[in-house]
Amino acid sequence: MGPEPVVATYSIAACDLGAGEWGVATQSKFLAVGSVVPWAQPHVGAIATQAYANPRYGPEGLALLRAGRSAEEVVAALTEADADRDQRQLGVVDAEGRGATFTGKDCDDWAGGRVGDGYAAQGNILVSGDTVDAIARTFEANAGSPLAARLIECLAAGQAAGGDSRGQQSAALLVVAKDGGYGGLSDVLVDLRVDDHEHPIPELQRLYGLHQAIFGKTPREDWLEVDETLGAEIGERLARLGFAGDLGKAFLHWAGRENLEERVDGVGSVDPVVLEELRRAT
Questions:
Q1: Count of CB atoms within 10 A of residue 4's CB?
Q2: How crowded is the C-beta side of 211, counted as CA atoms within 13 Å?
Q3: How far apart are CA 46 and CA 18, in angstroms?
Q4: Are 102 and 88 a contacting pair, CB within 8 Å?
Q5: Which H/E stretch holds residue 274?
Q6: Percent of the chain's residues with pLDDT above 70
């Protein structure tokens, strides 16, 4: 018996070479699409496997990319070795930003893909090809935006253009960057999943907003110098919340309780996002 079909799925595998980021965004009429479709490794590539998905395409494809194969070569190698390739759909972007996509001849209509500089977009059981066209146009039009935000916009554009013919259920976003994750000790920059929701893309957008509030990075030149007046305000607000004593320790303790420790670096200057949250809390 073959694998469970990841039906009515559309996705985009993409990269931002300048930022050193690779990622995948996907939406499907399927429970927890993020557990199957997206795969990525920094400076290696990104892969989306769907339709009657072959999850082995993920790790095996990344291994081929690490060995120096191009996106087109990886697609060819994976599908040629798979007896069920006619039921598969696959998108790959390699370390150099080259995209390749594959749609087996037995995938249900509408099914197909588009490739361009830095991306591969694909979908199956869609209302029409307008969905994939909208994903491609949106990615191309938003160059310069952070990759994660860009990919979510692609999903929203695809849905607005028609989306899945069988409805919606789940969505996922995976973006990787070398040492770009928590504490600089992980390559996973963003990994968000909406496993079962009536409107999964707006929910994914909401989660991404929360993610950015906690883990986003304000340019250091936009941080505020903590002078005597601001230091007194911070200390007084912390004391109201029960965090007294040494200002640096109290500030870090409070920030850790609020999951904002990634936005704190001493008390010589303060991220305005953190300051706003402290003011809101008091």
A1: 11
A2: 19
A3: 16
A4: yes
A5: helix 272-281
A6: 97
